[in-house]
Amino acid sequence: MVEHGDIRVVRRGGSKINFRQPVITNDSRLLLCASGHSVKVFSTSTEECVHELRGHTDLVTGVVVKPSNHLQAYSCSLDGTIRLWDFTDGILIKTYDIGYSIYSIHTSAFHKGVVFTVTSTISDKKSESFQLVAVHLPQSGDQLVKAPELSAVISDVSSNPGAIVFGRGGEYIASANGLHLEVFFFKKQKTYRFFLKKDTKTGGKNTFMCVAAHPKDDCIATGHEDGKIRLWRNFNHQKEYTYSTLHWHSNAVSSMCFTPEGTNLLSGGVESVLVQWRYNDVSQRDFLPRLGAAITHIAVSPDGALSCTSHSDNKITIIQGIKVSAVLQGLVTGESVETDLMVDPRSKALVLNGKPGHLQFYSLKRDKLLYNLDIVQQEYIHELGLQQFKVVKVAFDASGNWMATVEERKQKDAEQELNLKLWAFDEQTQSFVLNTTVADPHESRITAMCFCQAAASQTTMLISASEDGHFKAWQLRRLAPGEDDGPSCLCDFVGAYRGLVPHCCCFSADGSLLAVSFQEVVTVWSPASWELLATLSQPPKAIRNLCFGRLSCSKYLLGTTDDHLLCCWNLLTCSLEWSTSMDISLLLGDPLTENIAAFCCHAGSTDLFVFKPSEPRPVFSLKAVCSGKVTHAVFAPREEMLESCEESSQWLNHSQLYFLTQCMDLMTFTTKAEEEKLMASSKQLLIDDSVAMTPFYLLLGKHRKGESGAAASGESAGRPPLPQGSGAVKELLRTPAHVLPSTSFLCSMFVKSLLVSVGDARSVESKPAEEEMESEKEEEDSEGDMESSASRPERGSLARRSAEPAAPPLTKAQLRELRRVKKLDHSWLTGLLRS
C-alpha cells in the first residue's frame, strides 16, 4: 500500500478468486477463497460475499479450515504470517509470524498444533527451489505470536498446492514435482521416491501436474501433462509399487480430488468438463460439460453435499450433485485488455473485455459481476493458433442509450475482418440489444472511436478513425414505435487530412468541436458544418493522446507526443499555451471537474500527476504508484460526493480514479477517512440489539422508524413496556457458541439470573393488592359520579323535558360494563386502520 498524506493506493475489487483452491465449510453453507490481500467468505446459497477477512499485507496464498475447530480457518501469505480467523463473524483471532514468505498451507487432524507450509529454501522470492516445513504453533494468549520452530519435511517440492496432499488422515504426505513422486510416512520417518521418464514411446508427457490421495485406502492419484491419470498402490514399498492408467482428458490434468467417502474421483482440465470416475469401476464415468472455461481447482465439502470448481476466467462454480447450483464470478482480466476501461452511464458499472468475444459489466461498489454481454455471438473454439473475433473498442453515449463496439479478426493469408456494431438499451430487459451491424466500416484497422457527450445534442453522433487515413461520422437515431423500415445508422461525413493516418479523436464538452490527430498534426473540426477550423502542428512527433479541458478550462486542448512532450493549446488563440517534457503513458480527464490525470513512466514505475490546465502547480502528485506502465484507467463518478477539506484530496470528491497495472490488478485511490468509514461499516454486525439485521429488516427499517415517532404518544400510554433481559443474558446470546465455556458451567449462572429473591417476590405480591384496592375505590367514585351525572338532566329546564322524553337511568351492571369497555386497549385498531 502506498501512502501520500491522506491518499492511499489500494486494491478495490476485481481481485482473483481463482488463485488458490477454495474451501467449503463443514456445513456446506460458506465458501472461503483467497482474493488478493484478503480472504473472501461467500454464501453458497445466495452467492453474496458475507465477510472479507482483511489483515494480510501481501498476496494471500492459501486458506484451510482448522481441523480441531471447523468454525475457524488458517490463511497464509507472502508477508510471512499465518492468521487464524473466526470466519463466521469475520474476526481475526491470532497472527503467527513465521518470518519467511509462505506459498501454500496444509493441515491434518493427525498433527495437532502443527501446520505444514511451503517456503523457499533461500529467503529470496525469485528462488525456484521450495521446501515443505512443519510449523509448530505456540500456545499463547497474545494476538501476535512468533513461531520460530520450523522443521523440514520434504526438501524439493512444488509451489503448487495441488501437488501436495495428506493421505489416510495424515499418516503420510505425498508430493509431486517434475517427474518424481515422493511419499513421506510420519511414523516410519521414511521417504519413498518414484520416478517417470520424461516422454513415453507414444509421445506422452509424464510431468506431474497434480496429486490426490484416497481418504481410506492406500491409493494416490496423479494427473499428468498428457492428460493421463495414474492410480498408485503399494507405494510403501520401493520396488513393489504398481499403478494403473486412466485417460480421457486431451490435455494436462490441472486438478483432482476424491470425495469424502472415496467412492468417486473428480478431475478437470482445459476442456471445461468435470469428470467423475467411479473408484471401484473406473470404466464408468459421469461428465458435467460446458462449464465455461478451463478448470484450475476442484474442492469437495467435508459432508459431500457440494463440490466446486475454479476456472481460468476468475470464476468459481458451485455444484450440487451433477447440476450447477451457483456461480461466483469475479472480474475477468486475462493476459491483456483490448478495450479501454469504460463506465456505463446507466449502471455505473466498469465495462471491459471479459470472456472471449464478450463484454463484462462489473459493479465497482458491490465488487460483483452484473452480467456478460455476448458481442461476437459466435462459439469460441479452444484451439491454439486459431484466429477468432475479439472485441477491441467500446464506447457509450452520454445518456447510456447507445453503445458502439468494434470486433476484428486477422487471418494469416486473408484480409482483416472488421465489424462495427451499434447496441441500443432495452428498457424491458435492462440490457443492450444489437441494433445495427456495419460490416467493414473502414478498409483497415480502427484506431479510435468516441461519442459526442454533449447533453443538449439533438442527435447521437459517433466518430471512428482508421488506419486507412479517414475518419467517419455516424448519425444514430431510434426508430419510432410504428416505424419498421429505414436505417438507424447513417454515415454523415468522411474526413481526411493530406493522406495522414488518424490516431486519436475526442469531442469537446459541449460537442461544438471535434479534434482528430493525424500523426503530428492536430485538426479541429466543426461537427455542425464539417468545416476544418484549425490545425495545430507544434510538436515534431506523432500525437498519442488528446483530451479537451472542461468547465472553466474548456478553451484548452491537451495532447501527448511520442517524444515525451505534454502540450497544451489555447483554442481561442490557436497557439501553444505551454508544454513540458514527460513520458506520459495515459492521459484522461475527469468528466465532472477540470482535473486532468496523467500517468508518467519513470525508472520502471509509474507516477501520477493530477492538474488543471489553467494552473501551473499540480493539484496532486504521487511517485511510484505501481511498477510497470499504466495503459488503462478511468474516472468513475461517485454516487455520494465526498466532503474532503484537504487540498490534496479534493480531486477525489466527485469521481474515483481506477487503473489497471501490468499484472492486471485493479487499483484505486482513496482517502484515510473513506477507508475508516468502510471498515466501520463492515464491522457493524447488528443494527439493533433486539432485532437481527436481515434484508427484510433493512427494507422496513425506515418505515418502522417513521411510524414509531407518530405512534409513540398513543401507544406508550396504552401498552405496557416490554420486559428487558439482563445484560448477562444478552451477552450470552451475542457470544459465538464455540468460544463459550461448557454448558454445565453456564447452567447454574444462567438459572440464577432468572430467579427472583424472596424479598422482591413479597414486594411484587403486595403491589397487585394495593392496585386492586385503589381500583375498587376508583370504581366507587366513578359510580357516584355517573349517578350524579344521570340525575342532572332531571333538574334541567321544563321546555327541554317536554320536548324530549327522559332517558332511563343506567343500572349498576350496565355501569360496570361501561367501565370495562373504557379500560380496553384499542391501539390494535389504530394499527389496523393505519396499515
Task: Please give a structural write-up.
The two termini are 53 Å apart. Helices cover 14% and strands 41% of the residues. It is mainly beta and 835 residues long. It is globular and about 85 Å long. Strands 1-2-58-57-56 form a 5-stranded antiparallel sheet. The chain has a 5-stranded mixed sheet with strand order 7-8-9-10-14, with no helix packed on it. Strand 38 and strand 39 form a beta hairpin. About 7% of the residues have low confidence. The protein is built from 8 helices and 58 strands. Among the domains are: 140 residues, Methylamine Dehydrogenase, Chain H (7 Propeller), CATH 2.130.10; 170 residues, YVTN repeat-like/Quinoprotein amine dehydrogenase (Methylamine Dehydrogenase, Chain H).
